[in-house]
Design goal:
Blueprint: E1 3-17, E2 30-45, E3 49-53, H1 60-67, E4 75-80, E5 83-84, H2 90-100, E6 101-105, H3 116-121, H4 131-144, H5 160-172, E7 178-182, H6 190-204, E8 209-214, H7 217-220, E9 225-230, E10 233-239
Length: about 240
C-alpha cells in the first residue's frame, strides 16, 4: 500500500492575548503560545481505518483539522495523497479538500432550511459536474443509508441518527479518497452509534481511508489501528 497521509514533525501553536492586570500591559500584548501538537510524525496508508483517541485537550481534533486542510500546522511537513500541502495556496487546498476528503462531524452541520437531499447535493455544486448527475448520486446515497423516504425532510424533522446518516451521505457525494470523522457518535445513543459505525465499516469496505476521532475506547476498537494522543504527542500506535 502507498501512503495516503504522511505527517513529519507536525507542530501547532495557538497564540493567546495577554490580559491587562492592575492597569499594566497593553491590549494586543501576546504571551507565549499554547503548543497543542508537539512534533507528530505518522504515516497512514491508503485503505486504513484509523482511530485517533485521546481525552479532551489531547490534540486529536486539532490534528484532524490539519489533516483535513481546515488549518495549517505551525511547522512540519504534511503530504496528502502525494501533495506537499505547504506548496499549495488556499484555492488549491480547497480543491484538494473538496474532491479528495469527506467530513463527518459530531454536530452534523446540516443547513436547517434545506432538505436532506439538498444538504447532500451541496458539496457537489463545486465539482463542475452536471446538476442531474449530482442529484442522482445524492438520491442513491440517501437510499444507501436508509433515508429514501426522508429526502424531502428538513433536519428538524429528522432524529440525530438520521441527521448523521445525511451527513455521511454528504461526505461520500464526491467519492472522496479519505473520510474524516470528528466524534461522529458523540451525540447519539448507544444503539444509534452502533448503526452509524456499521455505515463506517461499509464505507471502509469500498477501499476508502477512514480517520475517526474519538474519546470513547469502545468506538476506537472498531478501527483497525488506534493512535492514542496525550498532551499533543502520540503515546501509542496499535494495529489490531
Amino acid at each position: 500500500m502507498s501512503s495516503a497521509i504522511q505527517l513529519t514533525d507536525i507542530t501547532k501553536t495557538f497564540s493567546q492575548q495577554a490580559e491587562k492586570k492592575n492597569g499594566k500591559g497593553k491590549n494586543g500584548d501576546t504571551t507565549p503560545g499554547i503548543e497543542v501538537l508537539k512534533g507528530i510524525t505518522v504515516d497512514i496508508e491508503q485503505g486504513e481505518f484509523v482511530a485517533l483517541q485521546g481525552t479532551s485537550g489531547s490534540g486529536k481534533s486539532t490534528l484532524l483539522h490539519i489533516i483535513g486542510l481546515l488549518d495549517r500546522p505551525t511547522a512540519g511537513i504534511y503530504n496528502l495523497l502525494g501533495h506537499n500541502t505547504a506548496t499549495l495556496d488556499d484555492d488549491h487546498q480547497s480543491d484538494l479538500r473538496n474532491l479528495s476528503l469527506g467530513f463527518v462531524f459530531q454536530s452534523f452541520y446540516l443547513i436547517p432550511y434545506a432538505t436532506a437531499l439538498e444538504n447532500v447535493i451541496l458539496p457537489g455544486l463545486y465539482s463542475g459536474k452536471p446538476r442531474a448527475e449530482i442529484q442522482a448520486r445524492a438520491e442513491f446515497l440517501l437510499e444507501q443509508v436508509g433515508l429514501a423516504d426522508r429526502m424531502d425532510f428538513n433536519p428538524s424533522r429528522l432524529s440525530g441518527g438520521q441527521q448523521q446518516r445525511v451527513a455521511m451521505a454528504r461526505a461520500m457525494l464526491n467519492e472522496p479518497d479519505i473520510v474524516l470523522a470528528d466524534e461522529p457518535t458523540g451525540q447519539l445513543d448507544s444503539g444509534t452509534s452502533t448503526e452509524i459505525m456499521k455505515l463506517f465499516h461499509t464505507v471502509h469496505e469500498t477501499g476508502r481511508t477512514i480517520i475517526l476521532v474519538t474519546h470513547d475506547a469502545e468506538v476506537a476498537k472498531e478501527a483497525g489501528r488506534v493512535i492514542k494522543l496525550h498532551d499533543g504527542v502520540i503515546v501509542e500506535d496499535i494495529r489490531s
